[in-house]
Here is the input.
Amino acid sequence: MTVLSPSQQTLLGQLRQICGQAHVLTHEDPASDLSAWEQDWRKRVKGLALAVVRPASTAQVAEVVMACAASGTPIVPQGGNTGLVVGGVPDGSGQQIVLSLGRMNAVRAIDPANLTITVEAGCVLQNLQAAAQSAGFLFPLSLGAEGSCTIGGNLGTNAGGTQVVRYGNTRDLCLGLEVVTAQGDIWHGLSGLRKDNTGYDLRNLMIGSEGTLGIITAATMKLYPQPAAQLTAWAAVPSMQAAVELLGLAHQHLGPGLTGFEVMGQFALGLVDKHHPQLRVPLWQGSPWCVLLENSDSESEQHARSQFETLLERALEAGCVSDAVVAENLSQAQALWHVRESITMAQAAEGLNIKHDISIPVSRIPAFVAETDALLAREVPGVRMVNFGHLGDGNLHYNVQAPVGMPGQAFLHDYEKQINRLVFDQVAQFDGSISAEHGVGELKVGQLPLYKDATALAMMRAIKTALDPHNLLNPGRVLGAN
Ligand code: FAD
Ligand code: 2HG
Ligand code: ZN
Here is the structure.
């Protein structure tokens, strides 16, 4: 058990007064297990929290921040703790509090005429989607962790997911924010305005700041009409170049109906087949790549199906598809998406691995993959590439698994630095980004100075110092020691 200083004891007393005894969890109680908040999703890091604090309202968040600021206690905001870059767990010092937004999960309002929904930060993404659907609308943000990630975390990381090709990232879906600042003030910015040029864009600054500039307590998000029909197809493609050609045809034939375009490498699908044998993975054994396409149609299912058929016929003629299936009904479509969304879990089951969440101009992806695969195979013989992702957005999950027989921990210890360097140097050569949608967190802090424009970094540091001069909000993340 950690021994607490008198000022920490005082702080815990204040936090219990603010949130209630039951909502301030500490290691003082030997029965309480805080690992769900202290361990990151990928099991890369296990921190030690001074306390896990669970406020129920924006006013409580503000009071918690003021109490922490007065005692100089750092705060790590946390939503569903599904982040993949070690951004939402405390460090190992036992000095930081985790501010868990999970109890703030209400849907505050839906404005059908304005096409907006206002929700609290701890609202689980799937519940937000369901609330939109019950009101007759679509909230398009969609990702594999949607059953446990929260809209606060999605905004904190500017999450992408599988519908970006049509609807954009979380930032593009947000019209307003309510934020508690590092001083404990509340910014009431929940406007549902689509136009507002009254100065600096604070909303878009907060989005993607990974809890380092403010604590998002609520958000007003955009709603869309539900499509009349949604069809999913799965295509085997002979090469990454063919996948890019198929993407071009899909844009041409489906226009704004193209709402998903995911690419999956053979080894990634093989892992799903191996670790999730109950799932049926189509067409993967005979093809180096498969593509999942989604067509959302505002007319009818018949129209969507005939558009899809024309697209796939053209693609077969052009040789960029070797075989394809179109889901006959919703449950078949869901089964196909389930395969795609299971790759991350299957990869975790195979062992600790190195992830590269990168973006490259779509046109250059085939050359990037060919060159980088070859360089990696030379650098670490036997290395296995788990390559998949949102090709429609130029975003690959270019992940690397240990050679057969090498334990994941040893692989990371011996090779992570050199593999990261090799891949990220390649990304830079191809004018890409080393973080497309997962953020920087702690895992990529060391990489930013190597790959991000120095002037941009200096401006980021100046903003952090201005908004959080005592470095209380998620210290060490994004920018490292400030
Ligand atoms: P957390 O993990 O709790 O936190 C993430 C970051 O946001 C931390 O820095 C945290 O401090 C900050 N934060 C959390 N809440 C707040 C708040 N209220 N105010 C300010 N900062 C806050 N990501 C994608 O982009 N696309 C995908 O397709 C995708 N698929 C995934 C699939 C799986 C199986 C898993 C496990 C993860 C996936 N992710 C994906 C990553 C992850 O789900 C997203 O980053 C998600 O947005 C994190 O939400 P969360 O609520 O779990 O946030
Ligand atoms: C996805 O697209 C997520 O499934 C996770 O962003 C990616 O596991 C990964 O590397
Ligand atoms: Zn992704």
About this structure: The longest strand covers residues 229-237. The first helix runs from residue 6 to 19. DSSP finds 16 helices and 19 strands in the chain. The domain at 6-100 is CATH 3.30.43.10 (Uridine Diphospho-n-acetylenolpyruvylglucosamine Reductase; domain 2).
